[in-house]
């Protein structure tokens, strides 16, 4: 097989094989854009390397062959002493992982060729700068040497010379640095810096392959659910030089503003600089528009190329480019990351411009992005103490304690604190800290800096380049221009939408998107801003496209009404346990403590009208739509006082010589009902079978409320749901009782009460015997919370605090199975139950309630296995609607 392809041999659709960068370099090459020539070593080679620990046979020869042809086209050989060809060795996986993988520039330089390069360019400073960069990058990424050692050496040289800017260093300074860098390498590795160009290249290629498994790459993949076995490609690309003087430079750009989606180009440029300088915040960049003054011709060509790329990719592109003595070179492009608001705006604009269809547009926005648009914003009307501002890199309103290093960010966030990570600039080592922070604030770097790019990718609030704020990471403090000093632990608020930074906690208000969903903003009115109109358009499309219904989990009339405004098509889970708390607790206590049947009946009789009123309100709010009422689920002792508190009370009373009959009885009952594993104990249907009259009282309340609604002209559609069923026999008993009650109440009121009775599928046994259970159930609702608990044997209330962070850290899973459905395990059981349930009772209604109903990724899965609806919290209803539409489109 071929493992190496020249750029001209590939195209943008070969991302699996060539990686994103390689595929797009190929595409640009074939579009006739000025791309330095080069070749791509495929992901096949990487996978082979990762699997066998060595490169595939024949790869070296193939690389040699492509290298020879590159040398031929360039008219010089790699590292040739008098006129060296230099190359970059660049990683590039299928999915872009900003800053994750390593790139080495200027390969081919050594003590001989550096002189040839200097002579050819007529510029000593440039040649030695390039050489020191090679040793620095090679040392850091290939040889694993602490990057700070090199940076400190640069600082030393600058200090000795009394300068701060790298532009003030001359050829001799760089020559001296090369010596120092070589010494650093010698000390760290015990060997000389490899002088042979082909060896440099070989080691760099291996290092790129190895970096696939670098911890921060592993972490990023897990976060983003990128498969672990894809591997990366390696691109070898002839060097072009932005560090050849002030008529040279390097830049990054977007074809639209990635923060807002506004049309118009956007980017940063840095004169006399190479590669990463522009994103690393080495010097302050200038806005791309300023390039017009510096080099009008190159600027014009760049604009033209950006237009070509946008038209070609039909989407926002980001690019990397370099200008070498007035000549423009394209080094990278890809469909760029963007904020949620920008994603909605751009997709809409492209529809309006006739570039893409509405269906395509909807496929380009995600439920997660919609969720972000629903986050609250800072209240502009509130009194705010402004500390300063930077660039609005990634929107949102974040409040938290200021921390100045990633370690503290991780530590504090683990103990439940919201933190704002304040750094001068971030680098890939900060990734974990950035993940754990609520917001990110930097004082250097533009919208294309590492902090900005990564934050946008994660949907995290970020203000970057707040130069007026002095962030002193050594002393862990931030000083504002007004003189305010923020120490570690002080609370600040950052507004990623405006770029402002405030002292203390700024109050927040609902986002306009939520106000729209809530029915407060008419999308057709003037009050609706562009974002609201965009969201409305996409929601309409999704609602028409989706097959699944979306219901809400709501327990009271108020939530039900809100859910309905948010577009819920019914209630998928109406819990009844909340109806037993508060004032009613005493009634429940009496029920549990009852010695005689009479006492028991009395308590039930007292609860009945209260329950009836609860249901009445919910049925009214959801008139005409189904309401799935779950009969009482949690263990009874949850309704009794805390065992320790009660014991103390009884003991104190005894010591005082008082006798508290009631408390004593209560304590006995609490003891009797105490369970080691309440979640696996007396709850759900088990309770219904053991406490006589409890479930029938609930069914009676439902039936009476419904009958009453019918008489009042309403259209109540209750569905009665039995929780925690493990075997069809349990269900059968409760079902018969329930049907009897429905008939009785129907006769009493003179109406027909024909309501479906079904069950939750939340135990593995229920899923595995779904065929039998379906004979007695008119619907299934997958209780994925409990199903996840019982399939994994995880106690949800315990594991998240005790060991989940370790599991996530060690990569057992990338995201908690309670957050996103575990497709392989829990999902498989759902599939079995769906198939066998449908086989036994065609037309059985299938839904899911539980956290997963509002998780975009899980919603897709539920669509795929053929559920009829998902049910989630009212606030997630729009997210589920959009995602169900995307899944069906
Ligand atoms: P990343 O994926 O981290 O952006 P890249 O491989 O794109 O890594 O390269 C890092 C930096 O080096 C980028 O700024 C890129 O434009 C620059 N670069 C890469 N190859 C070359 C080259 N052949 N000539 C000049 N600059 C290059
Ligand atoms: Mg790049
Ligand atoms: Mg449950």
Automatic annotation (TrEMBL):
Pfam families: PEP-utilizers, PEP-utilizers_C, PPDK_N. Keywords: ATP-binding, Kinase, Magnesium, Metal-binding, Nucleotide-binding, Pyruvate, Transferase. Residues 535-884 form the PEP-utilising enzyme C-terminal domain. Its cofactor is Mg(2+). It catalyses: pyruvate + phosphate + ATP = phosphoenolpyruvate + AMP + diphosphate + H(+). Mg(2+) binds at residues 762, 786. Its EC number is 2.7.9.1. The active site is at 450 (tele-phosphohistidine intermediate), 849 (proton donor). Residues 417-499 form the PEP-utilising enzyme mobile domain. Residues 60-284, 294-343 form the Pyruvate phosphate dikinase AMP/ATP-binding domain. GO terms for molecular function: ATP binding; kinase activity; metal ion binding; pyruvate, phosphate dikinase activity. Substrate binds at residues 575, 630, 762, 783-786. InterPro entries: ATP_grasp_subdomain_1, PEP-util_enz_mobile_dom, PEP_util_AS, PEP_util_C, Phosphohistidine_dom_sf, PPDK_AMP/ATP-bd, Pyruvate_phosphate_dikinase, Pyrv/PenolPyrv_kinase-like_dom. Belongs to the PEP-utilizing enzyme family. This is Pyruvate, phosphate dikinase.
């Amino acid at each position: 097989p071929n493992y190496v392809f020249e750029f001209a041999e590939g195209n943008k659709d070969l991302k699996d094989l060539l990686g994103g960068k390689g595929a797009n370099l190929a595409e640009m090459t074939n579009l006739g854009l000025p791309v330095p020539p080069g070749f791509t070593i495929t992901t096949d080679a990487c996978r082979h390397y990762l699997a066998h620990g060595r490169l595939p046979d024949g790869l070296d020869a193939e690389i040699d062959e492509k290298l020879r042809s590159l040398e031929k086209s360039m008219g010089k050989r790699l590292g040739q002493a008098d006129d060296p060809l230099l190359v970059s060795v660049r990683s590039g996986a299928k999915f872009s992982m900003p800053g994750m993988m390593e790139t080495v520039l200027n390969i081919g330089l050594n003590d001989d060729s550096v002189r040839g390069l200097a002579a050819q360019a007529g510029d000593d400073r440039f040649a030695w700068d390039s050489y020191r960069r090679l040793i620095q990058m090679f040392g850091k990424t290939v040889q694993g040497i602490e990057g700070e050692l090199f940076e400190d050496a640069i600082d030393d040289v600058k200090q000795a010379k009394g300068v701060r800017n790298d532009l003030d260093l001359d050829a001799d300074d760089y020559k001296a640095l090369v010596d120092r860098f070589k010494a650093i390498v010698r000390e760290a590795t015990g060997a000389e810096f490899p002088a042979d160009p082909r060896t440099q290249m070989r080691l760099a290629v291996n290092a790129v392959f190895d970096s696939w498994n670098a911890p921060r790459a592993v972490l990023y993949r897990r976060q983003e659910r990128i498969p672990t076995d894809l591997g990366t490609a390696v691109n070898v690309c002839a060097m072009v030089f932005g560090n050849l003087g002030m008529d040279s430079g390097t830049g990054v750009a977007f074809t639209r503003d990635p923060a807002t989606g506004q049309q118009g180009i956007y980017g940063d440029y840095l004169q006399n600089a190479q590669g990463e300088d522009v994103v690393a915040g080495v010097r302050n960049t200038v806005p791309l528009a300023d390039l017009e003054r510096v080099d009008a011709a190159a600027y014009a060509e760049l604009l033209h190329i950006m237009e070509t790329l946008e038209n070609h990719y039909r989407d926002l592109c980001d690019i990397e480019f370099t200008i070498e003595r007035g000549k423009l070179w394209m080094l990278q492009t890809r469909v760029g990351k963007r904020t949620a608001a920008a994603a909605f705006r751009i997709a809409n604009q492209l529809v309006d411009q006739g570039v893409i269809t509405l269906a395509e547009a909807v496929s380009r926005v995600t439920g997660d992005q919609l969720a972000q648009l629903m986050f609250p914003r800072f209240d502009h009307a509130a009194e705010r103490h402004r500390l300063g501002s930077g660039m609005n890199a990634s929107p949102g309103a974040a409040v938290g304690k200021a921390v100045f290093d990633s370690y503290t960010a991780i530590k504090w966030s683990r103990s439940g604190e919201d933190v704002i990570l304040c750094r001068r600039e971030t680098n890939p080592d900060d990734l974990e800290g950035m993940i754990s922070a609520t917001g990110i604030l930097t004082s250097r770097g533009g919208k294309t800096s590492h902090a900005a790019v990564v934050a946008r990718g994660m949907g995290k609030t970020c203000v970057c380049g707040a130069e007026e704020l002095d962030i002193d990471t050594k002393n862990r403090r931030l000083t504002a221009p007004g003189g305010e000093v923020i120490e570690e632990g002080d609370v600040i608020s950052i507004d990623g939408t405006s770029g402002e930074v405030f002292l203390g906690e700024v109050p927040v208000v609902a986002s306009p998107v939520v106000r729209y969903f809530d029915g407060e903003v008419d999308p057709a009115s003037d009050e609706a801003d562009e974002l609201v109109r965009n969201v409305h358009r996409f929601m309409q499309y999704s609602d028409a496209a989706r097959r699944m219904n979306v219901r809400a989990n709501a327990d009271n009339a108020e939530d039900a009404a809100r859910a309905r405004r948010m577009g819920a098509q019914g209630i998928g889970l109406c819990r009844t346990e909340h109806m037993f708390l508060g004032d009613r607790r005493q009634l429940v206590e009496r029920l549990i403590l009852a010695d005689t049947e009479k006492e028991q009946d009395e308590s039930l009789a007292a609860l009945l009208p209260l329950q009836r009123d609860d249901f009445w309100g919910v049925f009214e709010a959801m008139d005409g739509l189904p309401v799935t009422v779950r009969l009482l689920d949690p263990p009874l002792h949850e309704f009794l006082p805390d065992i320790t508190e009660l014991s103390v009370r009884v003991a104190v009373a005894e010591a005082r010589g008082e006798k508290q009959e009631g408390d004593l009885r209560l304590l006995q009952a609490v003891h009797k009902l105490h369970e080691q594993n309440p979640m696996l104990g007396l709850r759900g249907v088990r309770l219904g079978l053991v406490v006589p009259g409890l479930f029938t009282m609930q069914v009676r309340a439902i039936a009476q409320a419904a009958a009453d609604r019918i008489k009042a002209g309403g259209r109540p559609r209750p569905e009665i749901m039995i929780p925690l069923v493990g075997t069809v026999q349990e269900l059968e008993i409760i079902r018969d009782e329930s049907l009897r009650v429905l008939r009785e109440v129907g006769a009493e009121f003179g109406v027909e009460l024909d309501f479906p009775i079904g069950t939750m599928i939340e135990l593995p046994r229920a899923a595995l015997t779904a065929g039998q259970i379906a004979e007695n159930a008119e619907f299934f609702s997958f209780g994925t919370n409990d199903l996840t608990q019982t399939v994994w044997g995880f106690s949800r209330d315990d594991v998240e605090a005790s060991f989940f962070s370790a599991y996530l850290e060690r990569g057992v899973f990338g995201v908690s199975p309670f957050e996103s459905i575990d497709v392989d395990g829990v999902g498989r059981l759902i599939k079995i139950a769906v198939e066998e349930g449908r086989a036994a009772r065609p037309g059985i209604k299938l839904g899911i309630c539980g956290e997963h109903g509002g998780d975009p990724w899980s919603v897709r899965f539920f669509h795929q296995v053929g559920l009829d609806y998902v049910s989630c919290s009212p606030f997630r209803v729009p997210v589920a609607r959009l995602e169900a539409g995307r899944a069906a489109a």
